[in-house]
Amino acid sequence: MSEQKMGTNYARDLIEKFRSTAEKTGYPEVKEKLTKVCDDLEPLVKKLYFKTQKGTEDMKSLAEQAQDLDAKLDACKAAEEAEGVCQPFFDELEKIIKHVKTMKVRMT
Which of 4, 11, 6 is nearest to 100 (CA)? Predict the structure, then answer.
């Protein structure tokens, strides 16, 4: 039986990646934003994928994009450039977090 990775696993991987990246980065603004996104996302992980099948695809895509985040941040020469590298993650995760917080579950 093949084991399929679910959105919750991808979300946890992404949180772990962001936290380790936050520890390594030399840009306080980026560190603060990465930590805040993790803190916002962590309590929602369990219900994130209970509610939406598309969530697995979204988080898989984000997790794949984040694989080389450390290298991209290391290549940055200024805090603004580092924030630009992370901004697409912040924007996408903000939409997902808002969606999960405001979504109503219909029991049928």
Answer: 11
- Name the amino acid, one letter, at 100: V
Q: How far is CA 14 from CA 22, 32, 60, 63, 79, in A?
A: 12, 16, 9, 6, 22
Q: What is the CA radius of gyration of the chain?
A: 15
**pLDDT, tens digit, for every residue of 35-80?**
999 999 898 887 765 545 566 777 788 888 888 888 898 888 888 9
What is the DSSP-derived secondary structure letter of residue 97?
Answer: H
Output the CA–CA distances (angstroms, integers) from residue 37 to 2, 18, 77, 105, 107, in the order listed. 31, 8, 23, 24, 29
Q: What is the pTM of this model?
A: 0.79
